[in-house]
Amino acid sequence: MKSSFLNLIALATIIAHSHARDCTFTNSTTIFREPAQITNILNCDTFPTSVQISSIFPGTFSLSNIINITGSISIYHEFGPPVLTSIVLDDLQYLGSLDLNQTTWDLDFVSMGALKAVGNVTVSSNKESTLRFPGLKSAGVLELNGNVSTIDFGFLVNVSQIRIRQPVLVGQYAIIQMPALNATFPALKSCDYLTTWGNISELSMPNLIGGKDIHSPISIDVQTNYESPVPINFDSLTNAADIDVKGFIEPLHMPVLANASSISAAVNGDVNFPRLVNATDILVQGQVCSLSLPALQYLNESLRVQTYRPFNCSPLRTVYDHTSTIFAAQYGYNSPAYENRVFRCQSYYVGETKEGLSQDVRNGPGFGLGLGGGLAAVLGFA
Q1: Is the pLDDT of residue 372 over 70?
Q2: pLDDT of residue 214
Q3: Is 373 exposed, middle or buried (0-12, 13-18, 19+ CB in 10 A)?
Q4: Residues of the signal sequence (predicted)?
Q5: 5, pLDDT greater than 60
């Protein structure tokens, strides 16, 4: 997929050069430190080099006439107070890569309104910030770290990887949260790897089908510590490798998912996979009310449920026994693979209190309790 992105950018570069006016520079990288440098390039629209924006560039960096940068855009850190506050390149259509890693404290707004294709995008923000890429359709790796609070990738269709990571800072008396992030990608259809960790208030990818092809299904790792129920939307997802979902997610519903390898969910409420046919291993735990697997036929290893709510295990036992019959027909009842299969369904619910349970069960892992220490531990944030 990466090569296809580079080919697209290269093709765009060839087309652009048929009528482009190259900006001529003697060095392979241009460092912008002051607005006066911009006035010298008003008669060109294509950068054949990389661009570095100095951390001491005052205020907003903008190149209104540039449509193609074949190299990269990055921050050049210099001595002195960082005064760069925003980057606005709303005429830019094609870019090699964007690397705003470990950005300055004051940079809080990045806008590339016309950008169509880019290689990799890396943004690490110390300050609450907004990223605006409303026209972007193809990207390599999209990595957002730190205090990114608002994003606009409304037309992004294909991406190799999405990695969103928000740290959780532990103060003297409380956990310090990053601002909640609504991670919505309404047009996304293809992604090989998806990772979101942090204060995610919503995750919506309604058109996501899976990875780039049937032989490369998507891997999903979603961990949110948002205090209220988090809606997630994977309504078009059909094939996945590993799915790992943790947090106050209620319900967890993937209506057309047919094939998955490992499914691990620590969530609240109902869990529904109405069309899931094939899976290797399924583990569901937390404040789970029900698990629906009406279409499951092939289960290679285990089906396990641990919940702190009332739960009827009988329907799941019926599903598991059905998969066991199919599995035995393929591998035999006496095969080691059959003997290693596991069914376990446990509910620790005992009414309003947990009296009579052992201390480790009473304390429990704290699934679905917002910022409780247990959930923080589950999410790897404590």
Answers
A1: no
A2: 63
A3: middle
A4: 1-20
A5: no
Q: How far apart are CA 31 and CA 67, in angstroms?
A: 18
What is the rounded average pLDDT of the residues 37-56? Answer: 87
**Model confidence over 163-177: pLDDT tens digits?**
999 876 655 554 566
Q: Which two tokens stand for residue 184?
A: 């919505």
Question: Helical H runs in 68-140?
Answer: none
Cα separation of the two ends of the chain:
36
Which residues, other chains included, contact 351 with Cβ-Cβ below 8 Å and sequence gap of 6+? none
| CA separation for the pair 314, 371 (Å, rounded) | 33
Residue 142's φ and ψ, nearest 5 degrees, are -110, 110
Q: Is the peptide bond before 251 cis (omega within 30 degrees of 0)?
A: yes
Which amino acid makes up residue 25? F
User: Distance (Å, rounded) from C-alpha 232 to C-alpha 193?
Assistant: 16
Strands 29-32 and 252-253: unpaired
Enumerate long-range contacts of 319-327, CB under 8 Å, 24 or more apart: 319/293, 319/294, 322/296, 322/297, 323/296, 323/297, 323/298, 323/299, 326/297, 326/298, 327/298, 327/299, 327/300
- Taking the C-alpha atoms of residue 214 and residue 218, their distance in angstroms, rounded to an integer, is 9
Share of the chain above pLDDT 70, in %: 81
Tell me: pLDDT of 148 over 50: yes
Element (H or E) spanning 14, and its range? helix 2-17
Measured distance CA(25)–CA(254) in Å, rounded: 52
* The pLDDT value given to residue 3: 54
Q: Would you state the pLDDT for residue 123?
A: 94
- Taking CA 198 as the corner, what is the angle to CA 225 and CA 368, rounded to the nearest 5 degrees? 15
Alpha-carbon distance values, 81 to 7, 130, 147, 163, 176 (Å): 39, 22, 20, 30, 26
